[in-house]
Amino acid sequence: MSNHLKKILIANRGEIAVRVIRACADAGIKSVAVYSECDRAAYHTRMADEAYYIGPSPSIESYLVQDKIIETAKKSGADAIHPGYGFLAENSSFAKKCEENGIIFIGPKSDTIALLGDKLEARRTALKANLPVVPGAEFDNSNLAKVPAIARKAGYPVLIKAAAGGGGKGMRIVESEEKLNESIQSAIREAGSAHVPEDRQSDGLVLPFSIRDNLVLNTYYEHPFSRGLNLNSDVITKTAEQRVEEFDVRTPSIFLPASTLSGGNQQKVIVAREFSRPIKLLIAAQPTRGLDVGSIEYIHGQIVKKRDEGCAVLLVSPELDEIMSLSDRIAVMFGGKILGIIPAKDATKEGLGLLMAGILSNEQAEVV
């Protein structure tokens, strides 16, 4: 390396940067440090041969700004960029920018990073290269019958993982063959389901987290947002901005805490997050409780849109107008039991109300 590289920019901070700077010194290569406002006096800035300021303290405004890192590398005359780990280390778009600007990215090629961000493709590639992988197989609804034999060959316990799941969704540990089919179906259902909870503040959002983070919570640790535990902040930000615009979330900044939003906009964040991935089942529990008229109409419109796209919708609500306007069939409960299921076109407010109160039977309610 020392025969070709004369100067390396370390796109990181703290101990990570210090280690790379020491390695550069040992190899006779000049080192370039970058620092944010809070790192002005950091040890790595004093160890390096050169140091450049790249922005305010938040990493989203400094260490994660790809163009700023590239610009600094060019300005300093660095031949290569070492990303350390975390930050931009596993960011395929950053590696691609380095390649396009004639700067060596010390790490995998950009297409390799992108490839390994997809679970299925990464496994297939490893198998093609005759690399050792955990015993297992891919399957879908067309070949589920083969799974028991595969599981027996691998040996219990086995892990069922939905390819589309994120953040642990669609993952099941199966201890025995008796529970295999149930676990497979459960993993498939969970990976393809969305939930708009009754209590948006307790169950739908992490209020101290930013609006940006809340918009991608359920897929934080999935491609393209990350690989492993390393987050691609630029992609997360871009995706959040797109969802804010698409789902009409009113906010001056996606970096504000979710707690600063109105109730309607908080619900829109949940809807944007849940509806932005492939789903087959939507469970909406009192999705418009306590919202303003405009937000109610918007949420209703999004639910209808999902329904029309072929998604099954389970709507739980005490609001008869909401139930009757959005439902095909209405199941009425009283005392913890389902008393009857009525086609929405045959239902009346009076009949449903009496059925909900336990006064009428299902057959009587249809006639009222």
Task: Summarize the structure in words.
The protein is of the alpha/beta class. Helices cover 40% and strands 17% of the residues. It has helices spanning 14-27, 43-47, 66-76, 92-100, 110-116, 119-128, 147-154, 180-191, 200-204, 211-214, 233-246, 263-275, 293-308, 320-326, 349-356, 362-367; strands at 7-10, 30-36, 50-55, 80-82, 104-105, 158-161, 171-174, 193-196, 226-227, 230-231, 281-285, 312-316, 329-334, 337-343. The strands form 5 sheets. The chain has a 5-stranded parallel sheet with strand order 3-2-1-4-5. A 3-stranded parallel sheet has the order 8-11-12. A two-stranded antiparallel sheet has the order 6-7.
Q: Give the helix/strand class.
A: alpha/beta
Percent in helix: 40-55%
CATH topology of the largest domain: Rossmann fold
Q: Could you list the spans in which at least 5 consecutive residues all have pLDDT below 50?
A: 364-368
SSE series: EHEHEHEHEHHHEEHEHHEEHHEHEHEEHH
